[in-house]
Amino acid sequence: MSSVATPSIIDRIGSVLVSLEDTTVHHDPAAQEPSDGIFEPAESLNLQPDALAFVRRNFPNGLYRHQHSAIARVLAGQNAIVATRTSSGKSLIFSLPVLNQLCVNPSATSLFLYPQKALANDQLLKLREIAAATPAVVMAANGRSHFISRYDGATPHDLRGQIRQDAQIVLTNPDMLHYAMLQYHDRGWARFFANLQYIVIDECHEYRGIFGTNVAHILRRLRQVCHLHGSDPTFIATSATIHNPQAHMERLTGVDFDCVGAEADGSRQGRRKFWMASSGDHFYDYGRKLAFKLAEERLTVLAFCPGRMAAERMMARLLSSHENELPYVRVYRAGLSAAEREEIEHGLRDKSVRLVFSTSALELGIDIGEVDAVVCIGLPNSMMSLWQRAGRAARAGKDGGIVLIPGETPIDTYYANHPEELFAKDNEPLVLSTANRRVVCQHYACATAEVGGDEDALNTDVLGEECAGVKQARADGTLDLDIFYRAEPHMQVNIRSIGEGNYKLVFRKDDEVIGEIDEFHLLREAYRNAIYRHGGKAYRVKDVIRGKRKVLLEREYSWNETRAFITKKIRLKRRQRVADYENLMLATAAIDVTEFLVNVTERDRGGEIVQSWNGNMGMPTHTLPTEATLMRLRRPFWDEMVNDLGPQDARLALQSCERLLWGLFPAVSGPCDKQDFSSASEVEPDGTASIYLYDMVYDGVGLTTVAVERIHELIDKAIERLEQCGCDTDTGCFRCIAHPLSNESASKQATLRMMQRIQDELAGDCTITHEENEPSLHDAPSTHPCPACETPVRKGDRFCSNCGEKQPD
Amino acid sequence: MRTITKADLESRYPTPLICGARIARTGDKYLGPERLGADTCRMLGEEQVGWFVGHMPSFERMIEHIQQVNAAGTGGRWVVVPATRFWAETAHRLWFADAHQSGFSSPATLWHDRLVTFCVPERLRELDQAFRQRTAGVAGIMLLDPTCIVHEARSFSNQGFHVAHDRPQLIANFRSSLAVGRWAPPLIVMSWHRAGAVSTERIVQAYCLEAFHFIEGLGLWSGLMPNKNEKYRALPDAPHHCTLATNKDAQWDIEHDPVSAAVRREQADVVPNLAQPA
Lengths: 809, 278
Description:
The complex is a heterodimer. Chain A is an alpha/beta fold. In chain A, helix 23 crosses helix 25. In chain B, helix 5 (124-134) packs parallel to helix 6 (167-177) and helix 9 (248-256) packs across helix 10 (258-267). At the A-B interface, strand 20, strand 21 and strand 24 of A face helix 6, helix 7 and strand 9 of B.
C-alpha cells in the first residue's frame, strides 16, 4: 500500500494553497477517509466458464459487493440501475453480462448508449480488450473486425454497411439511434434488433431536461421496434451522481428497474480532501496560477473552467508568459478532433501531460488515469457536476484533492459564504417531462414512420400514455400538425437542444462543415460579424443564411472578442396557479420569449471597443414558448417604486432583482444547471412590472415553476446576498447586482429597497386561484396583419417586411 | 444606452432635404409621404431602418437629386457610395460636366463637394478615419446601386489569407463607425429596380439593417423646400398604381399645410406629379 505517498499528495496541495499570496480558504473540511473494498466471489454468479475465468484472472479478490449484486440481477433478466460512486467499477457491471451472453449465444447483440462520442470511444477499447481475453467471444467474433464497433457521426460511411452486417455490440449515442438506426430498423438493422439482449445506458444522469425528454421517447420507440422484431432486451444503466436513480430510469425507459445504490457500494476509494479558496485576484487568474503551481509541483492537475472560451484564454495566458513552451499543458473541450482528444487522454495516463484546462467535457467517465488534483475555477453548475469533477481525483484507491474556487456570481458568492450548505446538498432531482406535447408529437410521427406509416399499428402500451393521448386526439380529428405529414419526420427532431433545427457552421475556404449550432446559441455566439472560436482557431461570421440554415465563416487572425447584446420580449399566454397578494401577483405561466440582437461590440485585448454594430444585423429572432414563474408588481407597488427611486433607477433595480433571483434560484431549487433556465423583466404598458423565471426548453419541463413555492426562501437569500456583499460601492459588483453584459449601473440600495418591499408584500395575505381561464393561444395564428399595410407578419418579427413598419409589441 | 441629442440631429437635418412617397414593397399600397427630417431620421437611425428608393428613372436623375441636396448648403454631410467604379466614373463625369474640378488625386473614386462626399465602398475606410478626426456630422449614406448588385458582392476568398472582398460589410462597418450611441446615419439605397423585383430581405440583412421603408423613385423630391407657391409641385403624391392604405397623406397635408393640400387636390389632374425644377 502507498501509505507514505497517500497523505503527501493532499499535503502538497495544501502547502501550495498556503504558499499562494492572498489566499483565503473559505472551507477546509477534514479529508474523507479511504475505504477498503468489500468483495464477493464471482463463482456464486451463473457465469459461463470463459467469463468466469476472465474474472478470476483479472479480479483475484472477487467482485465488489455492488458489482456482484448488480450482475446477479442482470443475469436474472431484471433491468438494473447502478448508482455507486465514481471509480467503483461500473463498466464491468455491464460488460460482463454482455460478454457472458455472447459466450452462450454468439448471435446475441447489445446496444451501448453514451451521451458523448468520447465516452463511447474510451469504452470501445476496454470492451475489445475484455473480448480479446475471453476465448468464447474470440471464437464468436470469428475474425470479424466490426464485431464490437462504434456507430456514430464519426464512423466513416463506407464502414457503416459492414458494421450493420457484422456487429454484435454497437456503441452509439441517442442521436445516431434516432437518426440512423430506428429510422432504418427494417432495412439494415433487422438482424441486430431481432437479437438484441442488452441495452446499456451509461452516465444516465446526462439524460435530463430537453435531451432527456427526447431520449425517453427514443427509448420507448426502441422498445417498440424491438417488439416488432421479437426481442425484449434488458436495460442496464449506470451513473455515479444521480438523485432517485430508480425513478429516473423508470421515467426514462418506461419499464421497471431494480436499483443497486450507494448503500451497496463496496468499492475501494482513496483519501479525498476538499478546499474552497479564493484570493483578491480575479478567480480566473487565481485558478490559473494555482493549477500551474500544482503542475509545477509535478502533480497531475485537471482544471475545470466555466466554458471553452475560458479554457482557451487560460491556456493562451500561460503560453504567452512562458514563450509558448509548455508541452505538459493542454486544453480539453468539445470541438477537438478525436486524435487530439486521445493524445491528451494518453498524455494524462503516461504523465507527459500534467495540466489540462478542461470544460465539462472531461467530467464524465473517460479513463484518464490518476489525477492528483482537481481545480474547479468557478463552482460547478450542479451538484452532479461537482461530484463528477471531484470523482476525477482519488481514483483506484489513490489520494486526491479538490480545490473549489468560487466565481464572481451571486450564487458562487452565496456558497462561498455558506460552504456547508453546498456540501450538504443532495444531487438534484433530474427533470424530464415526457408530457411535453411538442416533443410527443414529433416522436409520435417518428414512431408512426417506423411502423410503416400506419397509426393503428402503434404500440401505445410501449410508447406510453402521452402517445396514446396523441393517437386519440388524431382519431378524434383534433390534432393535425405538419409533422405528421413529413416524409422524414426524424430529421425534424432536434434532440439535444431547443429550436427547430441546427445551423451548420461552414468554413468558406472549401465549404467545410466544422460543426453545428442551435438557434439559441446562434444568437449568442455565431451572429453576423461575431468572432467565433472553434478548435483553437478564430473565425469571423460573415453571414447567416436562414433559408439554408448555414453560418458562413472566414478565418480571422485577431485576438479581438465580440459580444452580443440581446433584448427579450415576453408575451404572457396563460396563467395557471395564481397567488394574489395585495399589490403583487405570483403565478406559474405559459409565455413566449422572443429574443433579438440589438448590438454587437468588438473589443481588442485591452478591452477597448474597436467596432460596434447596432441592430439585429439580419439575424433571425428566436421565439421560445415555455413555462415560467411570473412575479408581477401591481400598479400601486410599482408606482411607489417609481416615485421613490425615479423611473430609470426603478427599472434598473427591477433588472437587478431579476438577476439576483435568477442567480440564486439554484440555491432553493433542485436542478441548477444554469443553461436550463433564464430570466427576464419588463415594465408592462399598463404600468405594472414583471419578473419572469423561465425554462430554456420548448414548452418547458417544469423547472422554474417550482419557484412559486420557494419564493420566500429565494427572496430571503437575495436580501442576504445584498446585505452581506463586501463591495463598497452602491453600483455593486458581479457578486451581487452588477451585470457583465449591461452598460447601465443599478443601485444596490435601490435593489435592496425593492427586494425588501417584495418581501413585505409576500408576508401579507394571499389568495390562491388554481386556474385562470385565459384564452389558450396554442392554436392562435402564427401571423397578424401589419397595422400599416395589412400584410401578414410572423409572430415575433419586429418589422413588416412589406412596408418596414415597426410592429406593436 | 446613449443616443444622439436633439441638437445634434437638428444640426444634421435643419430642414428636410429629401422627401418621397412611401409605398409597400409590393407597390400596390401608398403609405403616405415621408420626409428625411430630424424626427424621421432619428427613428430610421435608431431602429436601423433604411430607405429603399426603387424605380428610379435613370442614374442621371439620381445625380440630379444629390446635386439638389448639395446645392441646399445646409445640414450634415451626405456620403454617396456609387456601386462600382464604373458608376463612380459616371457620377464624376455628370457631376463635373460644366463646373469646377475637384482637387483630389483620385477623383473618380473619392471626392468631396459642398455637402456631399462621393466614395466607392473600397475607400470608405479612409473616410471613416477622416470623418472621425473631423467629427463632422454625417446626415446619411446614399448607395447608388442602379442594378441592385452590391448586396451580392460578398464573394469570399478561397485562398486562405486573402482578405475577403465584402462590399456590404464595408458599408455596414462605415455606417457603424459613424454611430452615435444606438443611432447611426440612415442608409438610402437607390435603384432602377422596383422593390418588389429584388430580394429586399437579403438586402436588409446584407447591410445589417432591420427593415426598409420603400420609396417610389419616380416621385422622389430633393433640395430645399420650395416656397409656398411652388409647393404643390414638389410634394410627393401617391403613385398612380397604388391604393391608399391609410389616410396618412391627408392627415399630413392637413397638419402641415392645409392650403397647399387643398390646392394640390384641385390641381391634381393638371399638375405633373413628378415635377422637379430643371
